[in-house]
Design brief:
Helices cover 30% and strands 15% of the residues. With 321 residues, the protein is of the alpha/beta class. It has one domain: 3-Layer(aba) Sandwich (Rossmann fold), CATH 3.40.50. An 8-stranded mixed beta sheet has the order 1-2-4-3-5-6-7-8, sandwiched between helices. Helix 1 packs across helix 2 (139-149) and helix 4 packs across helix 6. The chain is globular, with a radius of gyration of 18 Å.
């Protein structure tokens, strides 16, 4: 098992992760603030930024790149994909401005920049060979956009309960598109193009505290929600990306998914607004050929189970040479 620099184990000394029970707690530092975090620098949208990133497995094996969910979330929930490192070189990272990666400005957030970011990570870990690309939730949008622009670079696409990839699907989700933390950040965010590190700390701390209520509908039992694993949420990136990336232009671009001919696996849970029925109705028809794996007894927020890993293994064995 290989990783960049060191394993992030638990909380960073001197900081504690915010929680609803401790709203005054700090959030962990980002990769540019803490050189001990596993990380890698990339040039995207004219800026060099530090990505919080880990790799698992033998780099000579085919690369599997995994894009996390949420406009500003992190890859902590996706760590069970490490189990695939016996056959793939697994790369997990927090997108620019998200999780524990370096914070970015509004001008660095666009459809093109996310496509460029995936391309930069691919160039570092699989410069010649095509990759397996997995996208979870909102990360499914980024993975799909990269696939549209670079279909030859993606040997197989795995969409793990992706967010809406068409206008029709987006309209069907309208009642759930609230946006985390709008009540306490929108007014500030639309007045500035740059926030200081302390501004990000305060906003991200509040976003973490607000998260349980904001994502309640995505559990099977909203009255008794579980605990979603997360290090830190980049709320500035989340709200800005939602406004800039998920729009009519992205849906127009994604119509080209119908031309993608490599294997596609779509994963859906048994409950919640993005469940298997939603994916069957709104995501599968976007592709010339795609298959659905339905996982029973899990929600959008606890999809990363041994059953998911098994479904992906089975798909790879059947679909890839």
């Amino acid at each position: 098992m290989t990783r960049w620099l060191m394993i992030l184990a638990g909380l960073v000394v001197g900081c504690s992760l915010a929680s609803p029970d401790d709203p005054g707690a700090l959030v962990p530092p980002t990769a540019d603030e803490d050189p001990a975090l596993p990380q890698l620098s990339v040039d995207v949208a004219g800026y060099r930024r530090a990505l919080h990133l880990e790799t698992y497995g033998d780099p000579s094996r085919p690369a599997l790149l995994a894009f996390h969910g949420g406009g500003g979330n992190d890859y902590r929930a996706m760590l069970p994909l490490r189990a695939l490192a016996d056959e793939y070189f697994v790369v997990l990272w927090d997108a620019r401005g998200s999780g524990l990666s370096e914070r970015i400005t509004r001008g660095e957030i666009s459809q093109q920049s996310y496509v460029e970011e995936v391309a930069r990570v691919k160039a570092l870990f699989s410069p010649e060979a095509p990759i397996v690309l997995a996208g979870y939730s909102w990360g499914g949008l980024h993975a799909s956009l990269f696939t549209v622009h670079h279909p030859e670079a993606v040997a197989a696409l795995v969409l793990i309960e992706p967010a809406p990839l068409s206008r029709e699907a987006n309209d069907a989700m309208e009642s759930h598109n609230g946006g985390l933390g709008e009540s306490f950040v929108n007014e500030l965010l639309w007045q500035v193009d740059f926030l200081s590190p302390s501004d990000h700390v305060e906003l991200d701390r509040k976003a973490y505290a607000a998260a349980p209520d904001a994502i309640r509908d995505y559990w099977c039992d909203p009255e008794h929600p579980g605990e979603y694993p997360m290090w830190r949420h980049g709320i500035f990136t989340d709200i800005t990306a939602t406004e800039r990336v998920r729009n009519d232009a992205s849906f127009d671009a994604l119509s080209a998914l119908a031309n993608y001919r490599s294997p596609v696996l779509v994963v859906g849970s048994s409950c919640g607004p993005l469940n298997a029925d939603f994916q069957r109705k709104h995501t599968l028809p976007l592709f010339a050929s795609a298959e659905l794996a339905e996982l029973d007894g899990v929600s959008h927020l606890d999809l990363f189970t041994p059953e998911l890993v098994s479904a992906m293994r089975d798909f790879f064995e059947r679909a890839l040479p």
